[in-house]
Design brief:
Order of helices and strands of chain C: HHEHEEEHEEHEEHEEHEHHHHH
Number of domains of chain C: 2
Shape of chain A: elongated
Radius of gyration of chain A: 30 Å
Chains: A alpha+beta, B alpha/beta, C alpha+beta
Oligomer: heterotrimer
Number of helices of chain C: 12
Strand content of chain A: 5-15%
Structural class of chain A: alpha+beta
Helix content of chain A: 40-55%
Number of strands of chain C: 11
Helix content of chain C: 40-55%
Strand content of chain C: 15-25%
Chain lengths: 444, 241, 406
């Protein structure tokens, strides 16, 4: 029976190809625009480590100026980074299963076998747990272990791209190279890894590439490096004349994350932080109201305004456009079906039940929706590819990996097609099905 | 086979109530060829709609082949129309973008018959009406008489309990009209009940029985002796139609 | 026959569905059109705001010393000597950041030493005595820095050392000292250290991070910063920028093995990036709006055509009893106008509601009624245009249709 209805639908399309093209075209455009904007929105607001959302927490404490909040846009939030002493103290609690303290640095790498000149390299100074906490995949070797955190060694991990630049992509574990003219030994090379957004450090651009070089944090302390390439914020009343002063100050410049596997460990972490805060408060620090937070990734992205308001406008407009397309289609279908009422009357007289008529017309609508969805998907691919091309150039803040076509896009397209078919077709099909058989028969 | 007893059908609008049928009773036996005739506005169209299960009625009973079909759901009525009634309309009502074969196919599709079964019925129906060679033609390529014959094929393909013909020759010239009436008589002789609704008394005379309707009621009915077929027109070539 | 709106209206109301569908499309189209123009206009205004610098002819060089043998000050001196000597270069200055650039340094400024009262987050450009000329800014009052006033770079993290003199932009001066001349006044940082305002320049745009936050307050300080790397802002003669850029990149990369040139980027590049979001929004909104209005147009056309085709008998009858072609056209145009007007009325409410919501969400000024009026006119015109052809086709229906039975 469905085959029969499909056959009838195709005949109907052939009879009025212009109108059919308008319907399919309108739906295709509406779906394409929606799929593109939704893909970008989903990519930009999604949680790239969603499976660990109940385990990973950003650690923040409010040590800021009692006169004004750290973030005027979100005055209820503490600063997004930690000071050195606070981070060290919290990490030393032993409560979290894993913890990471890190900052970003700009460095220059020399000595690779395949490179000819010194290369600037975005670097992350971090403790060892970074790789396991964020499930960073390795191509060769591995990260360093916790021992290298306390008694730091000049070890280095390279990104896949950096390894290709420096060593032509071979297994470079064990080789040495020079970072800022200091010798380091390669212990690992990462595989492709580009979490979008860059949730673990939003201060340097939420959609930038992860760093190319990773070095133990304590070694960076040894070299007395301040975050050049990251963001440092200090508030008032601090005399800083040496590196030691800087470490002891209330300047915030470190990102800190902990992994807490259960609600119990989370509660213990919170009480530890609160107890530490109380101690420090008695000693004269932490002049603002207590605001110690453990923030999971999805909330972190919201707090840090990672989701672009503009994207919401895009999605809203796309929906409005699709709505107009669908309403248009409903109108066309209604006109078409009702215009065919005499023929439908004959079919009813010959024995078609209301359901038969309804299903027949629903099949016609479904065919239009599927055709529209397929064309829409193709258009969306073209659109996303166009976005790619538009945004390809700059590295920092570029949308390169962003607007790519993945399973989510296909799911959106299918869902939209089904919803469109239902929205556009149910009413006209029902209307024509309800028609009494005698109404349009050309009897006397 | 078909019994209507005291049927009353009222059309109501906001202001007016029209009694289209009043205490209408009729009985048709299997194999009969009955005409229902009357002037315009007499209620014969309403009778057609009611007999053909196209409309419901306010009071009375309607029995079809020993089944009470007075108060059935829309779905049940559709089923019955499909299985028991063969319609033939004045303006043929073929579906314009289906070919002859597909047009005859329509009611069989709704009966969910298998493809081989449908094919057999369609081809034998078209053979019977003399259009076996025009299977692929579109209605627009056929003359009025041929179109009506396709419609007849469509009506008989499903072996209905009776044919319900609404002014079947109204849009045909006299030659084609005669051919169609001959065909209907032929089908009736093969055992199919036919109810013919018409305002033309000449046409009504070709039936065995004529029920005359005025103002929604039966005024009288006549029985006719089976008349010999009128002589063919000189020089007419039947198969050219 | 006059305009006869009432019978047309009642005929319309009896057969509503098609009309309602079209009216809803018009309503949505109006809301989309009005708000799209609104948003686009805001963005264009934002992009057109003057930068205050000669950005088409400027570029930024970032140098990174990475060995222990690297000496910042001599390297800087040599680089600047080279840059200023180049043919095609107007001037060059060391800089910690550049207008619309990615790095940003800022501090809080107060008008009293106790951090009470007005405080502003201010981005600062640390430049030498060539700074003004390289920026292309001009003095409105006071003077520029002298060579002997330029302080050496901060060592380590001396975040608390302030400078004795600063130059501020005009609007910053007005904000700090409203109603008076800011020249000679003293400002304080958040550690209570004082600086005198010795010069006021035209408004200069801040680095991109500040601009995005909505803070466009800028001051110049007389220091050659090198704590976070060394940077130079170079200004060239018109048309010479690209050639000079590649020459500079080549020379500087090779001239000193103790350092790398991290990047050489024009200010035009930064500007494009800064406004990229806005450009995209513009393109997207214009495209989608055009599409929506087109689809709406098609819908109106379709409904009008359908109405004509189902009413040929009626049209024929009207003509048969004496109606002229013009009367038929008028009938259908009036019918369409009624539908369009209904849609526009609903659309106005929708447009204003969406506009209000947008202004709340994005802290934008309220929707100007000009946009609404403009949108209404456009859609009304489009609506009438779309129904013109079907109305003409209706008028072509011959009166003989009235007597046909088939």
């Amino acid at each position: 029976m469905l085959g029969y209805y499909l056959h009838l639908a195709l005949k109907s399309f052939r009879r009025n190809p212009g109108l059919t093209a308008v319907m399919v075209g309108a739906i295709a455009l509406g779906i394409a625009v929606c799929v593109v904007t939704l893909t970008v929105y989903h990519a930009m607001s999604g949680n790239p480590i969603w499976w660990k959302n109940d385990r990973l927490y950003a650690v923040t404490m409010d040590l800021w100026d009692p006169q004004k909040p750290a973030n005027p846009r979100h005055p209820e939030l503490p600063p997004a980074q930690m000071s050195y002493n606070d981070a060290t103290a919290i990490a030393a609690s032993g409560i979290p299963e894993r913890s990471v303290v890190m900052f970003r640095e700009e460095g220059v790498v020399t000595g690779g076998s395949a490179q000819r000149k010194p290369l600037p390299a975005a670097t992350r100074m971090t403790t060892a747990d970074f790789f396991s906490m964020f499930e960073v995949p390795f191509l060769y070797g591995s990260g360093w272990n916790a021992a290298a955190d306390s008694a730091p060694e000049p070890l280095i991990v390279l990104s896949k791209k950096e390894n290709e630049r420096l060593f032509g992509g071979v297994n470079s574990v064990g080789r040495t190279l020079r970072w800022n003219d200091q010798p380091f030994r390669v212990v690992g090379v990462l595989d492709d890894w580009f979490p979008v957004p860059k949730f673990f450090d939003v201060t340097t651009g939420a959609f930038g590439r992860p760093e190319d070089v990773y070095i133990p944090l304590r070694w960076g302390m040894r070299l007395e490096l301040a975050p050049n390439g990251g963001s440092t914020d200090c508030w008032a009343l601090q005399e800083i004349h040496s590196y030691r002063d800087f470490l002891n100050s209330d300047c915030v410049w470190l990102q800190m994350w902990v992994e807490l596997p259960s609600a119990a460990s989370r509660a213990r972490m919170q009480s530890f932080m609160d107890a530490y805060w109380a101690d420090q408060h008695r000693a004269g620090r932490f002049l603002r109201p207590r605001n110690n937070r453990l923030t999971p990734v999805d909330q972190w992205l919201i707090d840090n305004d990672v989701v672009d308001n503009d994207n919401r406008v895009f999605v809203g407009m796309a929906c409005a456009f699709l709505a107009v397309c669908l309403i248009n289609t409903v109108g066309i279908l209604l006109a078409r079906f009702l215009g065919r009422a005499p023929v439908t009357g004959v079919r009813r007289a010959l024995g078609a039940s209301r359901r038969d008529v309804f299903v027949q017309h629903l099949v016609e609508v479904g065919a239009v929706a599927i055709a529209g969805a397929c064309c829409g998907l193709l258009l969306a691919v073209v659109g996303l590819w166009g976005l790619h091309a538009l945004y390809a150039a700059p590295e920092r803040g570029g949308y390169q990996e962003l607007a790519h076509f993945d399973n989510a896009s296909i799911l959106w397209a299918i869902a939209l097609a089904a919803a469109s078919a239902a929205a556009a077709g149910l009413y006209p099909a029902w209307r024509i099905g309800r028609m009494p058989p005698a109404a349009y028969l050309k009897s006397q | 086979m078909l019994t209507m007893h005291n049927i009353s059908k009222i059309y109501r609008t906001d202001l007016i109530e029209t009694h289209a049928l009043r205490n209408f009773s009729v009985e048709v036996s299997a194999g009969e060829f009955v005409a229902v005739s009357g002037p315009s506005g007499s209620g014969k169209t309403t009778f057609l709609n009611v007999a053909g299960l196209l409309e419901e009625f306010e009071s009375g009973t309607y029995r079809l082949e020993d089944q009470d079909v007075s108060r059935l759901s829309d779905d049940a009525r559709s089923r019955l129309r499909n299985e028991k009634i063969g319609f033939i309309f004045q303006s043929f009502n073929l579906i314009p973008d289906l070919n002859v074969y597909d047009n005859v196919d329509v009611p069989l599709r709704y009966r969910r018959l298998k493809s081989a079964d449908r094919h057999e019925r369609i081809t034998s129906a078209l053979e019977l009406v003399g259009l076996g060679s025009r299977v692929k033609h579109m209605p627009a390529q056929l003359s009025g008489g041929q179109q009506q014959r396709v419609a007849i094929a469509r009506a008989i393909a499903g072996d209905p309990a009776f044919l319900l013909a609404d002014e079947p020759t109204g849009n045909l010239d006299s030659l084609m009209a005669r051919q169609v009436m001959d065909l209907l008589e032929q089908i009736n002789e093969m055992g199919t009940t036919i109810i013919l609704v018409t305002h033309d008394p000449e046409l009504a005379r070709r039936a065995q029985r004529n029920i005359h309707v005025i103002d929604g009621q039966i005024s009288d009915f006549k029985f006719y002796e089976p008349r010999p077929a009128p002589p063919p027109l000189a020089g007419a070539n039947v198969s050219a139609l | 026959m006059g305009w006869n709106i009432r019978p047309i209206m009642s005929a319309l109301l009896r057969n509503r569905t098609g009309a309602v569908l079209v009216a809803v499309q018009i309503a949505i189209a109006l809301a989309v059109l009005v708000n799209a123009i609104y948003i686009v206009h805001q963005r264009i205004e934002k992009m057109r705001s003057p930068t205050g610098v000669d950005w088409p002819n400027q570029f930024w060089v970032q140098s990174e010393g990475f060995t222990s043998r690297f000496k910042a000050e001599p390297s800087m001196r040599e680089d600047l000597r080279y840059l200023r000597s180049l043919d095609g270069v107007v001037d060059a200055t060391p800089a910690n950041s550049v207008p619309m650039g990615w790095s940003n340094q800022s501090t809080y400024l107060f008008t009293n030493p106790n951090q009470k009262g007005a405080q502003l987050n201010v981005s600062f450009y640390a430049m030498d005595e060539h700074g003004l000329n390289t920026l292309g800014a001009h003095l409105i009052a006071g003077r520029a820095f002298r060579a002997d006033e330029i302080l050496p770079p901060l060592q380590a993290q001396n975040a608390t050392e302030f400078v004795p003199e600063v130059i501020v932009t005009q609007s910053l001066a007005k904000l700090l000292f409203p109603g008076q001349s800011a020249l000679g006044k003293v400002v304080y940082d958040d550690a209570g250290k004082a600086a005198t305002i010795i010069g006021i320049i035209n408004d200069v745009i801040a680095p991109s991070w500040s601009v995005i936050q909505g803070w466009n307050h800028v001051m110049l300080i007389p220091r050659t910063a090198s704590m976070y790397g060394i940077g130079y802002l170079v200004r060239t003669l018109p048309g010479r920028r690209d050639a000079v850029m590649s020459e500079v990149e080549q020379h500087l990369a090779a001239s000193n093995p103790e350092r790398v040139i991290q990047e050489v980027k024009s200010l035009e590049f930064f500007r494009t990036l800064l406004y990229r979001e806005d450009r995209n929004m513009e393109v997207f909104l214009v495209t989608v709006t055009l599409l929506v209005v087109t689809i709406c147009c098609v819908g109106i056309f379709g409904l009008a055509t359908f109405n004509v085709s189902t009413r040929t008998k009626q049209i024929g009858t009207r003509r048969a009893v004496g109606g002229r072609r013009l009367d038929i056209i008028r009938y259908f145009m009036v019918e369409n106008a009624l539908i369009t007007t209904a849609g526009i009325i609903v659309g106005c409410a929708l447009a204003l509601a969406v506009g209000y919501w947008l202004s709340l969400r994005y802290q934008l000024p309220r929707l100007d009624l000009y946009y609404l009026v403009g949108g209404i006119l456009v859609l009304w015109f489009v609506g009438q245009l779309a129904s013109w052809q079907p109305a003409r086709r209706a008028a072509a229906v011959p009166p003989s249709v009235a007597t046909r039975t088939v």
